[in-house]
Amino acid sequence: MMDTIIIRDLELFLRVGVPEDERAKPQRLLVSIEIAHDFARAVEKDDLRSSIDYAAVCQRLAEWGAGRSWCLIETLAVEIADLLLREFGATTATVEVRKFVLPQTRFVGVRVTRHANPHVS
Hints:
alpha+beta; 121 residues; elongated; single chain; GTP Cyclohydrolase I, domain 2; five-stranded mixed sheet
């Protein structure tokens, strides 16, 4: 059984876009994350150290993106999911990135899901 931590609409300002002028300055993105993790041990002990600290996740993502740029939000979403698996011990990470670049739409976005590889030590 897996449990899920949900972070909805984390506001990040990152450089992303295919045209260079779009990447010239950080733009507002909303990032939503679902992190699967077994909470049984955390609940048993009522101890954050056995869970995933969602405040630490938010802080890490804010710092991680500083000074970087991406052409595709697809790449950004996959890199965030990989970071959650690698650094926070998520079993599964689903990441949705929304950007507000086309005036005729409310937003454009992508959603990716990545799973930890149980065969990697």
